[in-house]
Amino acid sequence: MAFFNPFRPSYVQDPYPALKRLREEEPVFQWREQDGWVITRHEDCSRVLRDSDAFSSDPSKARGGLGQYVARGRAQSPLAGAPLIGSVDGPVHTRLRAIVNRAFTPRVIEGEREFIKETAAALLDAGGDPLDVARQVTHTLPVTVISDLLGLAPEERNPVRDWANTLMGVHSDPDATPQARRAAALAAERFRAFLAQYRDHHGPEYDSRLFTILVEAESAGDRLSPEELLAFAVFLYTAGSGPTAMMLANVIAHLAQHPEALEAVRADRSLLRPAIEESLRFDSATHVLLRYCVQETQVDGHTIRPGETVYVMVASAHRDPEVFEDPDRFDVTRQIAGGRLLSYGAGPHFCLGAPLAYLQGEELLDALLDRFSSLDIVRGGLQMGGTFLLRGPERLVITGR
Ligand code: HEM
Fold first, then answer.
1. How far is the CA of 21 from the centre of ligand 1 (A)?
2. CATH classification of 9-26+81-283+349-399 is 1.10.630.10, yes or no?
3. Model pTM?
4. Mutate which of 351, 356, 360 to test ligand 1's pocket (most atoms within 8 Å of Cβ)?
């Protein structure tokens, strides 16, 4: 019988041998310790993510494992009054998604390009050589971009980010201390007051910003309640910053480790976007996505029952030779067919921020290539970090200016 322990340091260093074994020997593996199933083939992963009738995104539907843990935390959170878009199903999700889709238009996203360019350049120029690009650049850029996209003046960015972090810190944690819960309640109170007065304090120059669009959408027919707006804003900080930071650091590491790919993108910058996609495939920031069975169903001959958690191993699906030729090779000229990359999810919860993530990737890499004539990782300069859910460098020290 197969064995799976993603918490071992050797797995964090290189999960791919373990995932390959599972995919070949037990592609639908019953993970008894976590009351669920680990799914490693692309076809099964893709199907589970798209089958939202049988597989819920709501952790409270889990009867054990990680899902129940998260659900217990959420029941006590100051955000419990409104559903988070990423963990709600059916018509409630459809309605929320329809409203926020109106704000995430291509024009609003494209409107961030100059800000992203300037911020990426400023962060790179502030660092030296060698540069820990993970700590000094890729972790800062996405959160700064979200602050601007939402419509925060520079002096508002740190307090709002701190409120969001404090709230998310307790949101999924049933073991949060009373002190952390008090801090979160205070952060929620301040954030609510800030949103209620947003329009009074922000002039017409903020008309194209998300808070204005979302607050205005409130007075139109279909609207977000103040609690839904708060929950969405907090969720955006988590959904839009961690994964983007990991994606940015991953692609820089992959290019540094593959000199022929680096030369190809240097010679032809239209390969930047394919390089980002290939990097997401090769070692995805989204390592695993969780689903909770709500309808008994079969996956590859195994019966999955309501309450069981399904660990959809995106990282393994991306190395499945049935779908990707020579999957262990990093190849920026690879054509990845639509729908095959699962890093942004699939189905009704497909990532709302994917175009913004690509925009940040393209602009940061462009600015990096302009400043670094070569790109090398210093000895011991790459340290993988993240969690079981999210994978990427915690430290990435590069040189070559
Ligand atoms: C490389 C960067 C990113 C990655 C890998 C990523 C990944 C994902 C994934 C996998 C999901 C679906 C989760 C699920 O189905 O369980 C998702 C949803 C979402 N993402 Fe992203 N994301 C990224 C960047 C962003 C950015 C920049 C934003 C916004 C500023 C964003 C906002 C969202 C939102 C709002 C959802 C929820 C959509 C829904 O539930 O309908 N993401 N993301």
1. 29
2. yes
3. 0.94
4. 351
